[in-house]
Amino acid sequence: MEFLQSTDFWIGLVKIVWINIILSGDNAVVIALAARSLPPHQQKKAVFWGSGAAVVLRILLTVVAAKLLELSFLQIVGGCLLLWIGFQLLSDDEEDEGESKTYGSLMAAVRTILIADLVMSLDNVIAVAAAAQGNVVLLVLGLAISIPLVIFGSTLMIKLMERFPIIVLLGAALIGWVGGETIASDVILHDYAVAHPALHYVAAALGAALVVGVGKFWRKGARSASAS
Fold it and tell me: What stretches pass through the bilayer (predicted)?
């Protein structure tokens, strides 16, 4: 337990917690969007299990993240997965607006949270690993502390989404934005991205526009089908 008396340990812990506070915003949005399709009594379970499992996944991912990011097309595939998740979450929102409100399953919500967090955490965990400087105890402890931060953020977002439905659309756009960023960050596009610095922002904006545009078209088609 000598490490508890080390100044470097506590400085590293503060760094990891602060990094997680900064990076947990988009993850809280994903968790809230996935959980809001559940009946009220299951929302807290989805937030808890989704957040906890996502943090454990980040710990495991930290060990191999640097190597994974060297694989061509990995982030392109991951970005496309995020775009698909954005489409699905907007589709769920359309179902929720109907008179006979339907609910999703707890496992489906947790699965959506895990897939989205896995993709969104690929580059984020490198920052956490750098702050930990190889100290596994510091890494695990720092990420464990981040669980209540994500849970609080997700719970707050669910309440805001119920009160301000426009946040659902903005949340889906955020997922699309991160999806576009992820695609543009793939190693195979590195040289092109260096030569064209605007690619990062253009891809992110296109991702957000694609999710919102296709999502609205999807919802319009669903309305037409239900009306006929």
Answer: 12-34, 46-66, 72-90, 126-152, 164-180, 200-218
Closest CA to 120 of 183, 210, 37: 183
Count the helix, strand and coil residues of the chain and give each as a percent rounded to the nearest 5: 85, 0, 15
- Torsion angle, CA of 17/121/58/146, rounded to 10 degrees? 30
Identify the pLDDT of residue 51.
78
Contacts of 24 (CB under 8 A, 6+ apart): 146, 149, 150, 153
Residues in the chain: 228
Q: Is the pLDDT of residue 208 over 70?
A: yes
Q: What's this model's pTM, rounded to 2 decimal places?
A: 0.77
User: What does the alpha-carbon distance between residue 94 and residue 97 come to, in Å, rounded to a whole number?
Assistant: 5
Report the 3 state secondary structure along 155-185.
HHHHHHHHHCCHHHHHHHHHHHHHHHHHHHC
For 150-174, what is each residue's pLDDT tens digit? 778 888 888 888 888 888 888 889 8
Closest CA to 65 of 122, 111, 118: 122
